[in-house]
Amino acid sequence: MLTVATTPEQAKQVISEWKAQGLTVGLVPTMGYLHEGHESLIKRAVAENDRVMVSVFVNPIQFAPGEDLETYPRDFEADKRLIEGAGATLVFHPEPADLYFPDACTYVNVEGITAELCGKTRPTHFRGVCTVVNKLMNISQADRAYFGQKDAQQLAVIRRMVRDLNMNVQVVGCPIVREEDGLAKSSRNTYLSAEERTAALVLSRAVAEGQRLMEAGERSAATVLGAMKQLIEAEPLARIDYVEMVSWDDIKPVETVDGPVLVAMAVYIGKTRLIDNFIFGE
Amino acid sequence: MLTVATTPEQAKQVISEWKAQGLTVGLVPTMGYLHEGHESLIKRAVAENDRVMVSVFVNPIQFAPGEDLETYPRDFEADKRLIEGAGATLVFHPEPADLYFPDACTYVNVEGITAELCGKTRPTHFRGVCTVVNKLMNISQADRAYFGQKDAQQLAVIRRMVRDLNMNVQVVGCPIVREEDGLAKSSRNTYLSAEERTAALVLSRAVAEGQRLMEAGERSAATVLGAMKQLIEAEPLARIDYVEMVSWDDIKPVETVDGPVLVAMAVYIGKTRLIDNFIFGE
């Protein structure tokens, strides 16, 4: 049976009963419109914890004006079926006014590590992400929280927040789940026309090309990124936001690989901004 | 028996044993050099919780360059005696390097409510306070945390942080403890020369004058504050940083009283900056 909580108080009541029984809690924060990527997170959380809370919340404070807050796809009935099928028993589905007081004025800021990649073009994005994830971790009192590696910078930023604030939760990163043809699963893939859907394959092809070069011994960021960009630029529907190589632990630009690195990209396919990445040497 | 933990891991180990037994935990965050004001917080925490953790930590990130970080008084042996005498069983006494990683980059910011009063002259102060208190709340997993009303803006800011981040801790504000002649107890009183110690009484006399006027029905902030300032300005060793009236819930300037207000001041006595306040209509 799936319990739906719409306010923090409702969710906390369920959680406090679990905690009183000494049960462990897994948290899977999502923006809904769930796909097999989310499903893999929920199943892993179910396997590793006594109880799992999935949050379904399109968080307004991580969107900037002009981004796709209003059009972000939503289908809560389908989400509930997927969540229940994956074995979670609590879904937290608040409205923005349930989660943010009108005079809310507290933000969790992770500096430095948020300056590169998505932080460059989305300067208030990670502040919104960290604030809502901090809230969800507090509401759920989670022992473990699950994040996809597709949002790799987000995963690094959340790990840093949890470490720096001495939070009592283990952050678990999970592999990217892809369509059969390679496209990374994303709720935003639904924005793509048939023609754009084909063009979007340049992202995973660039990932594969970058991986191939690095596994063959290439250690120059310029060479790896150059090959990846060339491949993407050959696609007329694609426009690069960024293709970059950074250190995986602190998200700083890398010229020559000598430790774990994140190679990440954001690419517009038509009007849709897609991201993909790989981690090398972890 | 008093246990001294110097790292978050040591403190968390003690706390997790308490939590496994279902015990409630009270937290009293301090900067040490404890006096009867702190003692009253610890005793209340002991009365209201199964176990109490007192932290003794002069938090560098809430001091700005030029403030009194280096000279802030310290006496850990005396602090331990007071803490044990008041009935707490765990003291958390880290060095800055135990609490902050060299690459720590996460801050908790409460905006708006931190703009007035002490926030005007100490613009990074509350960011440092909120960040360390958030960490201490996570380390202690406190059910209740105790703060003196002498730092009234701090109390309001911490309450707002806990509310906005859905933290699982109750913030308890406790009354100002004063010397027999009225001076609010403060670790910084030790900076005062004999002559300054006498001059410092203008703060509590101004508080008493403001309270007297408001209890007599005065509702104009300008009138109340004017009388208080006149009294302070008559003292040659005193220099006003601010004397202000703000709404108690959101720390916004008030012209005419029509709800709970905080009347707060910061006054230099020689080189020592002292604060005092009263709340009216709560």
Automatic annotation (TrEMBL), chains A, B:
Gene3D superfamilies: HUPs (3.40.50.620), Pantoate-beta-alanine ligase, C-terminal domain (3.30.1300.10). It comes from the Bacteria. It holds the Pfam family Pantoate_ligase. GO terms for molecular function: ATP binding; pantoate-beta-alanine ligase activity. The active site is at H38. Its main location: cytoplasm. ATP binds at residues 31-38, 148-151, 177, 185-188. Pathway: Cofactor biosynthesis; (R)-pantothenate biosynthesis; (R)-pantothenate from (R)-pantoate and beta-alanine: step 1/1. One of its GO terms (biological process) is pantothenate biosynthetic process. Keywords: ATP-binding, Cytoplasm, Ligase, Nucleotide-binding, Pantothenate biosynthesis. It catalyses: (R)-pantoate + beta-alanine + ATP = (R)-pantothenate + AMP + diphosphate + H(+). The reaction proceeds by a bi uni uni bi ping pong mechanism. Belongs to the pantothenate synthetase family. This is Pantothenate synthetase.
